[in-house]
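Task card 7
Instruction: Convert sequence to structure tokens.
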Amino acid sequence: MKKIYIDWIAGKLGVKDWQVDNCVRLFEEGSTIPFISRYRKEKTGGLDDSQVAEVKHWADVFTEMEKRKAGILSTIEEQGKLTPDLRARIEGCLVAGELEDLYLPYRPKRRTRATVAKENGLEPLADLMWNVKVNDPEVEARKFVGEKVQTVEDALAGARDILAERFSESATTRDSLRKIFRARRIQSKATRSASENPESSKYRAYFNFSMPLQRIPSHNLLAILRAEKEGFLSVDLDTDAEKCGNKIYYDFCQEKRYPGGKLAEQVRMAVDDSFKRLLEPSITNEVIKEAKEKADLESIAVFGDNLTQLLLSPPVGQKRTMAIDPGFRNGCKIVCLDAQGNLLHHEIIYPHPPQSEKVKSIMAVSDMVEKYGIEVIAIGNGTASRETEDFFKRVGIPDNVKVYTVSEDGASIYSASEVARKEFPDEDVTVRGAVSIGRRLMDPLAELVKIDPKSLGVGQYQHDVDQNLLREKLDNTVAFCVNSVGVNLNTASSYLLSYVSGIGPALASNIISFRTESGSFTSRDQLRKVPKLGPKAFEQCAGFLRIHGAENPLDNSAVHPECYHIVDRMASDLGVSTRELVGNDKLIKTIDAFRYVEGDFGLPTINDILKELSKPGRDPRQQAQDFSFAEDVREIDDLKPGMELPGIVTNVTAFGAFVDIGIHENGLVHVSQMKGVKLKLHQRIKVRVISVDLDRRRISLRLIF
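Output:
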């Protein structure tokens, strides 16, 4: 990659150019973000996963820009207009908008008013006016009157059309106007359709709205642009036509062209026309698009943070689980799972109205708890969740069996997916959904990777943001979570394995097939026998895969096989076996890390090895905790201002956090009610009710410290 790009990325991230250069080279060699950030710290200077991901993003952007530059240079060269200066400016460009500005005068165009004027032979007149080579344009225009141009005014109008297009294609002018437009206010007004459609009421705050573009919060801008797309708002910038016209004219004169008299009048007319007809709509769209791109990044970052917290939610682990998808009329769908998440049994009970088969339901639940040795119970948080939780408290389940409320977001999407059909071809969607609820209590990460993150209910304006950027962020987030936790090679599904560094769907399927045919893996080295899993793929994935009970204890750790010899040398120097060293904190603390630095394995790698030896294969996630809502609050009608209630954060946005307080509607803690505290997804908090809007079913909350 060219040095200008390396330097730009380094400046953007605030790191050294050699860190970026090495990172890019590793990508070119086929390394992944998790592998580079975890096992190549010496080469990157310790860049973390988010920094490595950003290097990857910008490296991809500039790779595409290089292709675009090649195409642009080829097109201009074919036109015979490529000068050394223009080539240098194009090759040195670092911003896509500036690159397109340079290309604009040479880009093939559709038929425009300027094109027609040129076809009518008026470009020489326009050139004289552009270069200030004529004192009286009207006199000169008479020479162009003929069959195609019938009057002097027609000739002048055509020349002005050509000048207007040149103004609109000037990189200097466009850059000047962008700076002016960025400092203006964005305005939105209700359209006629808004008054005729009740759906527009959610955008009422924007029916007569104005705010400086540079200060508008991301969620406000995305809401306005969504409303505009739906036809409820008209959106523009409060541009100052006179100021902009003066700036265009000033830039023209700066080129040592000083038109006077009648020529100045014609140039002014061309400037005004260029601004109103060409520049204002174009630059307005560009600047609003630019602001939206910034809002997209902020929204996507929030989504990424929420997804990370969701995927790394505390698991209860491998426990025999009963999962319930609660309901009233259609009953509560119950499944019983073994400690590995396999389906053992399912049935439906009807403890709630209209059937109200309470005694029969109690007996059924008691029998299932005893028969399948149930250790934990997962209740979905949808319809009838609180009522089902109350029912289970009356069942008389053993004290050691804990009850958890689990988010159902995405369970219905999973139950109807191809993934679910493959896992449970003989079961209906209700059973699959209940299984998903139980499994996401046991191991949220392993279950939620099967569901499109956009279906998990933790995004902000997720359908309005740049979908390519969103997909890139979400894929990186899922990969980070999977690889930071590590994956059990002998129990992981193909969907979980596909997110492991260097594997992907095809190799994941090959691993599952190999495991099915040859039995459980007993060592990481056996991965080399998996079809199409070559040396590079092994290098990338091995450190993130775990084999419980392996002959070599390092196979159940984050120590990479390329470093096993270092651990063996440590053990040998201490006079113990590697197995005796692993997990022996007392011995590990006596090791001098500097003694084992060698070749590409510097102090960062050695320190990581020592940390991992202390707690090999440790799951970085916390343990799940049970939680109870306020007993006396069941419906929104039960809420009163001033009430203090326990709650669980269900979604975090730029403007606040939504909180489940045990009723059907989530409440909102606005950022103004947080006092600077940053909440996390699924965080247990205490809130005070500020207000309740029964008509709109909205609840305002304040965070209690």
